Amino acid sequence: MYPLFESIALIDGQLQRLSLHNQRLNHSRRQLLGCSGPLRLEEYLHVPAECRQGVYKCRVEYGAGFGPVRYTRYTPRILSALYLVNDNTIDYAHKYSCRRALEQHRLGLQPSEDILIVKNGYLTDTSYANCAFYDGHSWITPSTPLLPGTMRRYLLERSELKERPLKPADLQSFESMKLINALLHPDHSAPIAVEAIKPFRG
Question: How far is Cα 80 from Cα 176, in angstroms, rounded to an integer?
Answer without folding.
Answer: 13
